[in-house]
Amino acid sequence: MNAKSFESEEYWTERYNDPQQRRGQLFDWYIISFAKLADIIGPVLLQQFAVDDHDENNATNAILRSSPVALIDVGCGNSPFLTDAAAYVKAHCRSPLINEKVFIGTDFSEVAVLEQSQLLSRNTEVENMQVRFTHADARMTIGAEESSVAVVMDKATLDAVDCSGNEENASAVVSTCVKSLVPGGYFFSLTCRPAARRTETILRGITTSGVQCEHISTVSLNNDPVSPSHLLIFKRSAE
Q: What's the confidence (pLDDT) of residue 66?
Protein backbone atom coordinates (compact mmCIF):
# COMPACT_ATOMS: atom_id res chain seq x y z
CA MET A 1 0.00 0.00 0.00
CA ASN A 2 1.26 3.46 -0.87
CA ALA A 3 1.47 5.67 2.22
CA LYS A 4 -0.02 8.49 0.18
CA SER A 5 -3.30 6.59 0.40
CA PHE A 6 -3.59 7.94 3.93
CA GLU A 7 -4.33 11.36 2.42
CA SER A 8 -7.44 9.95 0.75
CA GLU A 9 -10.85 9.91 2.38
CA GLU A 10 -11.67 6.94 0.16
CA TYR A 11 -8.86 4.92 1.74
CA TRP A 12 -10.25 5.38 5.25
CA THR A 13 -13.81 4.70 4.11
CA GLU A 14 -12.70 1.43 2.56
CA ARG A 15 -10.64 0.58 5.62
CA TYR A 16 -13.53 0.97 8.03
CA ASN A 17 -15.84 -0.87 5.65
CA ASP A 18 -13.44 -3.82 5.52
CA PRO A 19 -14.66 -6.70 7.76
CA GLN A 20 -11.04 -7.62 8.45
CA GLN A 21 -10.46 -4.23 10.08
CA ARG A 22 -12.47 -5.18 13.18
CA ARG A 23 -15.51 -3.27 12.04
CA GLY A 24 -18.16 -3.24 14.75
CA GLN A 25 -15.49 -3.43 17.44
CA LEU A 26 -13.58 -0.64 19.12
CA PHE A 27 -9.87 -0.38 18.43
CA ASP A 28 -7.10 1.79 19.93
CA TRP A 29 -4.16 2.65 17.71
CA TYR A 30 -0.83 1.56 19.23
CA ILE A 31 -2.92 -0.38 21.77
CA ILE A 32 -2.81 2.63 24.08
CA SER A 33 -6.16 3.33 25.69
CA PHE A 34 -7.37 6.34 27.63
CA ALA A 35 -6.87 4.29 30.81
CA LYS A 36 -3.14 4.07 30.08
CA LEU A 37 -2.95 7.86 29.70
CA ALA A 38 -5.42 8.83 32.42
CA ASP A 39 -2.75 9.74 34.98
CA ILE A 40 -1.35 12.30 32.53
CA ILE A 41 -4.39 13.56 30.65
CA GLY A 42 -7.04 13.10 33.35
CA PRO A 43 -5.91 15.94 35.67
CA VAL A 44 -5.63 18.30 32.69
CA LEU A 45 -9.18 17.45 31.61
CA LEU A 46 -10.49 18.02 35.13
CA GLN A 47 -8.83 21.45 35.39
CA GLN A 48 -11.60 23.03 33.32
CA PHE A 49 -14.25 21.80 35.75
CA ALA A 50 -12.49 23.00 38.92
CA VAL A 51 -13.86 25.89 40.95
CA ASP A 52 -11.47 26.96 43.69
CA ASP A 53 -10.90 30.63 44.40
CA HIS A 54 -7.77 29.74 46.38
CA ASP A 55 -6.18 27.73 43.59
CA GLU A 56 -3.10 29.49 42.23
CA ASN A 57 -4.13 28.29 38.77
CA ASN A 58 -7.64 29.69 39.10
CA ALA A 59 -7.20 32.34 36.40
CA THR A 60 -6.15 29.71 33.87
CA ASN A 61 -8.87 27.35 35.05
CA ALA A 62 -11.45 30.12 34.58
CA ILE A 63 -10.43 30.46 30.92
CA LEU A 64 -10.58 26.70 30.49
CA ARG A 65 -14.02 26.62 32.16
CA SER A 66 -15.25 29.18 29.65
CA SER A 67 -14.47 26.87 26.73
CA PRO A 68 -17.65 25.32 25.30
CA VAL A 69 -15.72 22.24 24.15
CA ALA A 70 -13.99 20.09 26.76
CA LEU A 71 -12.13 17.73 24.44
CA ILE A 72 -11.71 16.95 20.75
CA ASP A 73 -10.26 13.62 19.64
CA VAL A 74 -8.89 14.31 16.16
CA GLY A 75 -9.02 11.29 13.88
CA CYS A 76 -10.99 9.26 16.41
CA GLY A 77 -11.52 6.28 14.10
CA ASN A 78 -13.32 3.54 15.99
CA SER A 79 -11.40 4.09 19.23
CA PRO A 80 -13.24 4.36 22.57
CA PHE A 81 -10.83 7.12 23.67
CA LEU A 82 -13.37 9.97 23.59
CA THR A 83 -16.16 8.17 25.43
CA ASP A 84 -13.69 6.76 27.96
CA ALA A 85 -12.40 10.28 28.61
CA ALA A 86 -15.94 11.61 29.05
CA ALA A 87 -16.76 8.73 31.42
CA TYR A 88 -13.60 9.53 33.40
CA VAL A 89 -14.69 13.14 33.83
CA LYS A 90 -18.16 12.05 34.90
CA ALA A 91 -16.70 9.66 37.48
CA HIS A 92 -14.27 12.20 38.95
CA CYS A 93 -16.26 15.42 38.84
CA ARG A 94 -19.52 16.71 40.30
CA SER A 95 -19.55 20.03 38.48
CA PRO A 96 -22.73 20.83 36.53
CA LEU A 97 -20.44 21.70 33.64
CA ILE A 98 -20.03 18.00 32.83
CA ASN A 99 -23.48 18.05 31.24
CA GLU A 100 -22.85 21.33 29.43
CA LYS A 101 -19.40 21.03 27.89
CA VAL A 102 -19.09 19.16 24.60
CA PHE A 103 -16.84 16.18 23.86
CA ILE A 104 -16.23 15.76 20.12
CA GLY A 105 -14.69 12.99 18.05
CA THR A 106 -13.86 13.83 14.43
CA ASP A 107 -12.72 11.61 11.61
CA PHE A 108 -11.97 11.70 7.88
CA SER A 109 -14.19 8.63 7.44
CA GLU A 110 -17.95 9.02 7.54
CA VAL A 111 -18.15 5.26 8.10
CA ALA A 112 -16.15 5.56 11.33
CA VAL A 113 -18.29 8.50 12.47
CA LEU A 114 -21.51 6.60 11.82
CA GLU A 115 -20.22 3.55 13.67
CA GLN A 116 -19.15 5.66 16.65
CA SER A 117 -22.52 7.42 16.73
CA GLN A 118 -24.32 4.09 16.77
CA LEU A 119 -22.15 2.80 19.62
CA LEU A 120 -22.65 6.07 21.50
CA SER A 121 -26.43 5.62 21.46
CA ARG A 122 -25.96 2.47 23.56
CA ASN A 123 -23.30 3.83 25.91
CA THR A 124 -24.85 4.40 29.34
CA GLU A 125 -21.56 5.55 30.91
CA VAL A 126 -21.83 8.95 29.22
CA GLU A 127 -25.60 9.27 29.41
CA ASN A 128 -26.79 12.92 29.58
CA MET A 129 -23.35 14.18 28.55
CA GLN A 130 -22.77 16.22 25.39
CA VAL A 131 -20.77 13.70 23.37
CA ARG A 132 -20.87 13.62 19.58
CA PHE A 133 -18.98 12.45 16.53
CA THR A 134 -18.61 14.39 13.31
CA HIS A 135 -17.02 14.06 9.89
CA ALA A 136 -14.15 16.49 9.30
CA ASP A 137 -10.94 16.97 7.36
CA ALA A 138 -8.49 18.04 10.09
CA ARG A 139 -6.44 20.04 7.61
CA MET A 140 -9.33 22.51 7.50
CA THR A 141 -11.45 21.97 10.62
CA ILE A 142 -11.69 19.78 13.69
CA GLY A 143 -15.35 20.51 14.28
CA ALA A 144 -15.08 23.55 16.52
CA GLU A 145 -14.51 27.28 16.25
CA GLU A 146 -11.15 28.86 16.93
CA SER A 147 -10.32 29.50 20.60
CA SER A 148 -13.14 27.29 21.87
CA VAL A 149 -11.53 24.02 23.02
CA ALA A 150 -9.81 23.16 26.30
CA VAL A 151 -8.01 19.99 25.18
CA VAL A 152 -7.21 18.55 21.74
CA MET A 153 -5.97 14.98 21.41
CA ASP A 154 -4.08 13.65 18.40
CA LYS A 155 -3.76 9.90 18.75
CA ALA A 156 -1.72 8.70 15.76
CA THR A 157 -3.48 11.02 13.31
CA LEU A 158 -0.35 13.08 12.68
CA ASP A 159 1.59 9.85 12.21
CA ALA A 160 -0.82 8.80 9.46
CA VAL A 161 -0.71 12.22 7.80
CA ASP A 162 3.07 12.30 8.07
CA CYS A 163 3.35 8.95 6.25
CA SER A 164 2.48 10.68 3.00
CA GLY A 165 5.60 12.80 3.23
CA ASN A 166 3.54 15.95 2.67
CA GLU A 167 4.78 18.39 5.31
CA GLU A 168 2.13 20.95 4.39
CA ASN A 169 -0.65 18.53 5.34
CA ALA A 170 0.92 17.79 8.71
CA SER A 171 1.44 21.50 9.39
CA ALA A 172 -2.16 22.22 8.42
CA VAL A 173 -3.49 19.64 10.90
CA VAL A 174 -1.38 21.05 13.74
CA SER A 175 -2.36 24.60 12.84
CA THR A 176 -6.06 23.74 12.91
CA CYS A 177 -5.68 21.99 16.25
CA VAL A 178 -3.80 24.71 18.11
CA LYS A 179 -5.95 27.53 16.72
CA SER A 180 -8.99 25.80 18.18
CA LEU A 181 -7.52 25.95 21.70
CA VAL A 182 -8.50 28.57 24.23
CA PRO A 183 -5.54 30.39 25.83
CA GLY A 184 -4.14 27.93 28.35
CA GLY A 185 -5.58 24.98 26.40
CA TYR A 186 -3.61 21.79 25.81
CA PHE A 187 -2.61 19.85 22.70
CA PHE A 188 -1.57 16.23 23.21
CA SER A 189 0.04 14.19 20.44
CA LEU A 190 0.59 10.44 20.74
CA THR A 191 3.20 9.14 18.31
CA CYS A 192 5.34 6.11 17.53
CA ARG A 193 7.73 8.28 15.56
CA PRO A 194 10.97 9.58 17.12
CA ALA A 195 10.02 12.29 19.60
CA ALA A 196 12.38 14.84 18.05
CA ARG A 197 10.87 14.33 14.62
CA ARG A 198 7.31 14.70 15.85
CA THR A 199 8.23 17.76 17.93
CA GLU A 200 9.70 19.38 14.81
CA THR A 201 6.50 18.66 12.86
CA ILE A 202 4.33 20.19 15.57
CA LEU A 203 6.50 23.27 16.02
CA ARG A 204 6.37 23.86 12.28
CA GLY A 205 2.58 23.71 12.37
CA ILE A 206 2.45 26.04 15.36
CA THR A 207 4.56 28.57 13.48
CA THR A 208 2.16 28.34 10.54
CA SER A 209 -0.82 28.90 12.83
CA GLY A 210 0.40 32.19 14.25
CA VAL A 211 -0.63 30.97 17.71
CA GLN A 212 1.84 31.03 20.59
CA CYS A 213 2.34 27.61 22.20
CA GLU A 214 4.97 26.15 24.46
CA HIS A 215 6.27 22.58 24.54
CA ILE A 216 5.50 21.45 28.09
CA SER A 217 7.00 17.97 28.04
CA THR A 218 7.49 14.70 26.21
CA VAL A 219 6.56 11.50 28.03
CA SER A 220 8.05 8.21 26.84
CA LEU A 221 5.40 5.55 27.28
CA ASN A 222 7.58 2.52 26.64
CA ASN A 223 11.18 1.53 25.98
CA ASP A 224 10.47 -0.65 22.98
CA PRO A 225 13.31 0.05 20.50
CA VAL A 226 11.21 -1.26 17.60
CA SER A 227 7.98 0.60 18.32
CA PRO A 228 8.50 3.37 20.87
CA SER A 229 5.55 5.52 21.90
CA HIS A 230 5.71 9.11 23.09
CA LEU A 231 3.14 11.59 24.32
CA LEU A 232 4.01 15.17 23.44
CA ILE A 233 2.31 17.92 25.44
CA PHE A 234 1.91 21.50 24.23
CA LYS A 235 0.06 24.40 25.83
CA ARG A 236 -1.33 27.49 24.17
CA SER A 237 0.07 30.57 25.84
CA ALA A 238 -2.29 32.64 27.97
CA GLU A 239 -3.23 35.94 26.36
A: 92
